[in-house]
């Protein structure tokens, strides 16, 4: 394949978040190749990045020919390695290190809907929230992202939900409204035998001992304990905490006296992208499978699930 420079157009100055749904290999190439061709001809931009299933990367290599050397090809199982918040951190870190002026870069992104992202309704909701909040988190960047959805893997329900998170879909919903809708679904009630820890903050030793008894490996025990401590510190005085589950799915629910009314809580990258102690809910979202925040009449419940 040969490429030509894209026609001269005024440079964009904000996030361009697109979606492509494909039902076959040919439809994937029909969406991906024009996108990458424009990217390869875009001035003041680094090489575009294609994050996709290995089979789709093979299709791109064959179709691009010699131009494939000018595209960064990343298996999506190597990019999407943790929670949705972790994917945000990965994207923010890549843009900070490699993007052109104003954040200009083209990203072709295919989430792993056949794996962790689609593992359960709650984790699916967390990834749809990620797609919605990306419109706010990356709004200042002149980045162009094409989210590729394989209908054969993701299925109707996920594709329909994802359309509402993409401005070019025709059914786009304000990100805060969509996140609020996702949060309106009640969480399963804690089990009756959940271990109760008193406030105003759960003792680290108590969390560490409990997680060890539940079978978490030592390194995971420390991550889980730190996540609970960091989230508790960010939320302020607690009314109490509950622990339940067993390895690898250990859960801590923090009962907070105040509401948590920031839809971006825990998603906004700190000055340093790599998670460090002192980053509160950001750290918790990085190391946990998901962090659910539910505002209540006189407070909030924040549920962290590790593993």
Any chance you could write out the topology, listing elements then pairs?
Layout: E1 16-22, H1 25-40, E2 49-52, H2 54-64, E3 72-75, H3 76-79, H4 84-98, E4 105-109, H5 121-137, E5 143-150, H6 151-163, H7 175-183, E6 195-197, H8 204-213, H9 218-235, E7 238-246, E8 249-256, H10 281-287, E9 290-296, E10 299-306
Estimated structural class: alpha/beta
* CA-based gyration radius: 21 Å
**Number of H- or I-type helical stretches:** 10
Average of the residue pLDDT scores: 89
Low-confidence parts, pLDDT < 50 over ≥5 residues? 1-10
Domain MEDS: 16-167
Pfam families: MEDS
Protein name: Anti-sigma factor RsbA family regulatory protein
Short note summarizing the structure:
This protein is α/β, with parallel strands linked by helices and 307 residues long.
How would you portray this structure in words?
The chain has 307 residues and is α/β, with parallel strands linked by helices. Helix content is 39%, strand content 21%. The chain contains ten helices and ten strands. The protein has a five-stranded parallel beta sheet with strand order 1-5-4-2-3. Strands 6-7-8-10-9 form a five-stranded antiparallel beta sheet. The longest helix is centred in the C-terminal third of the chain and has 18 residues, at 218-235. The chain is elongated. Mean pLDDT is 89; it is low at 1-10.
